[in-house]
Amino acid sequence: MVSVRRQPVSRREAAGAATVIAGGAFSVVAASGTAATIAVAVLAVCGELALFLRRRIVPAELSAVAVAVVIGTGLAITVVAPQGLGLIPVLAGASVLPLSLPAGPSRGAAIAVVSVGFGVTIAAVSDSYAGLLAGTGAWFVADRTVEHEAVQVERDRALALLAEVEASRHAVREAAAGEERNRIAREMHDVLAHSLAGLSVQLQAIRAVAGREGAPPALTGPIDRAAQLARDGVQEARAAVGALRAAPSYGVEAVEGLVAGFPGEARLEVTGRPRPLAPETGHAVYRAVQEAMTNAARYATGSTIEVRMAWEERQLLVGVRDGGLPAGRRPSGVKGGGTGLRSMAERIEAVGGTLAAGPEPGGAGWRIGVRVPVAPGGPGEAGGKAEK
């Protein structure tokens, strides 16, 4: 079954379609006789329709057929109405022909056939061998498309790799920060906590001697208070060590910086009034958005990524979607580990939320939806402050 994909029309494609329509209209006017006029009009409509369907028909084999129809109608218009602009559909078809065929001998052969066919047609119509040079125009247009495609492939791969590098750099920065926190924690535990514990023992010994010697309250009172302060200091030092050893947490407020720093085109939309989130919940949401954006850069390179966060009374809804792989583009080739989606789901479920992923309903692209509960309490700032 042939599937149809809905994709927005770019300015370049709209300009190309308008040019083909204008060329067809001019060819209709330039045709001689009623029969020729009707034939040119039908050919022009068929060519424009085939060019329109090329972007939406999958698999690629049918796309190549649509391109062949565009080129064929252009050649036919050139024969029926030599004074018209049949060369426009031919050149338009030649410009997209490389995008409809895999790289290799078949693509080169198809470009050669179109170039020779176009040159021979122009030579026959103009009754001059100089018309053969027109074939170089079709070849040149197709060759430029091949070069542009190669540049686009490398650009898409670079973008996907940049997204991977950014995620890796973030992980390395977290690991370095965690190691430094652990080092400080070890120093506090080995030096400060032990020193305070030793001080507490010494003060207790002094207090015992003072009591045995019948020291007045003016002396034993300050000793007791100092001993209590030392014990409190030991507890506070241990609590600080535990906090330092805890992994740094990023919350939903850090998503804005994540989207702003994305190497491709990404947008963030936030609706509703922020409510409290448990730190682990905010961190899980942040990680889910990060992984979803990295996946989009891998498999839908060049598409705009939309991140939407909607605060509700009892839950936070987060959606990350892309527009699918743009027409004429190929996947970046950068592969993930294959466990990203499962890890996302496990992380979200661990904080009482749900995650759904799948194709975007009614259109191209992929969507990841997250629902997490908000913390009990009134409105306020979202939890989970990001560690810098």
From TrEMBL:
GO MF assignments: kinase activity
EC number: 2.7.13.3
Domain Histidine kinase/HSP90-like ATPase: 284-374
Reactions the enzyme catalyzes: ATP + protein L-histidine = ADP + protein N-phospho-L-histidine
Keyword Plastid recorded: no
Domain of life of the native organism: Bacteria
InterPro entries membership: HATPase_C_sf, HATPase_dom, Sensor_HK_TwoCompSys, Sig_transdc_His_kin_sub3_dim/P
UniProt KW keywords: ATP-binding, Kinase, Membrane, Nucleotide-binding, Phosphoprotein, Transferase, Transmembrane, Transmembrane helix, Two-component regulatory system
Transmembrane domains' residue ranges: 20-53, 65-88, 108-125
Domain Signal transduction histidine kinase subgroup 3 dimerisation and phosphoacceptor: 180-246
Protein name per the record: histidine kinase
UniProt lineage: Bacteria, Bacillati, Actinomycetota, Actinomycetes, Kitasatosporales
